[in-house]
Amino acid sequence: MQMQSRFRSDRRLTVRMTVTLFLLGLLYVAFVAALIVLLRSWVLVLVITAGMLGAQYWFSDRVALFAMRGRVVEREQYPELHGVVDRLCALADMPKPVVAVSDIDMPNAFATGRNPDHAVVCVTTGLLRRLEPEELEGVLAHELSHVAHKDVAVITVASFLGVLAGLIVRFAFYSQIFSGRKDQNTAVVFAGVMGVSAAVYALSFLLIRALSRYRELAADRAAAQLTGRPSALASALTKVSGDIARIPSKDLRTAQAFNAFYFTPALGSEPGIARLFSTHPSLDQRLDQLGRISTELGEAATPGKAD
């Protein structure tokens, strides 16, 4: 039986993850049932959905590393990075994840994997180049807390439904199921598949974004409390967010698909109602929270926060 890590548990995060998975589970069942009725092929639908869910759960870490050009690195290659991860894992009393580095200039980090025993923490060379050791420690503690809280696995599974809905739309366009058939029933079935898929994608999108924003705040809290240095994490947030804002948008677009996994989003948070579609809370929200924790711990004022 796996022991609980020393990262402070977050009951509100656990409740949100449970509710999100429950609602997405209901949505998933309804989606599969609708596809079976519309396509009249339950075997095809069940095989495709079960296969994709299994693949996403078991191979999500490899897919993420491949997409972001990450490579597993040994201690001899990055001794300082491994040293920080070793210290944090010992402090948190949790298994050490696989350590990886992505050779891109965008300063960022992410964690992925199905559980604490099968997890990967990846940082970019841009992040390593820009951060001081204590700032890097704060970022890595943030990512390790995602692993300890198991919200990485929840986000991976939760995102499956949106991915599936999007693929179903493409499949409907390009498959042979509808090609060459012009009767009215075929048009109704096609419209039904497209409508159900679009609705499922929209609902799962909003549910995942809401959970993602909260889990980032939970990870900031857990990291600040574990290290006892919320100001270092706040400094890293300010630095990374500022540097990302200066990177041309065209160089960030390939990374946007993985925003939900990143320490900070590849593009800045949107104002107003657009924040409902953001994967992360605003920088001000995160700094305000870290400032409160800093005060509680008796730390000096958080750097990077405007007076």
Describe this structure in words.
The chain is an alpha+beta fold and 307 residues long. It has one domain (12-173, 187-296). 63% of the residues lie in helices and 7% in strands. The chain has a 4-stranded mixed sheet with strand order 1-2-4-3, with helices on both faces. A hairpin with a 2-residue loop joins strand 3 (109-115) and strand 4. Helix 2 (42-67) packs across helix 6 (151-174), helix 5 crosses helix 8 and helix 6 packs antiparallel against helix 7 (184-227). It is elongated, with a radius of gyration of 21 Å. Residues 301-307 have low confidence and may be disordered.
Structure summary:
The protein is α+β, with helices and mostly antiparallel strands and 307 residues long. It has ten helices and four strands.
Index terms:
307 residues; alpha+beta; 10 helices; 63% helix; elongated; disordered C terminus
- Radius of gyration equals 21 Å
Number of helices: 10
The coarse overall form would be elongated
| Tally of individual domains | 1
Oligomer: single chain
Number of DSSP strand runs: 4
The main sheet orders its strands as 1-2-4-3
Biggest sheet character: 4 strands, mixed
| Portion in beta strands | 5-15%
Query: Structural class, judged by helices and strands?
Result: alpha+beta
Compute the separation of the termini in Å.
48 Å
* H and E string: HHEHEEEHHHHHHH
Percent helix: 55-70%
Average pLDDT confidence is: 79
Residue windows where pLDDT falls under 50 for at least 5 positions: 301-307
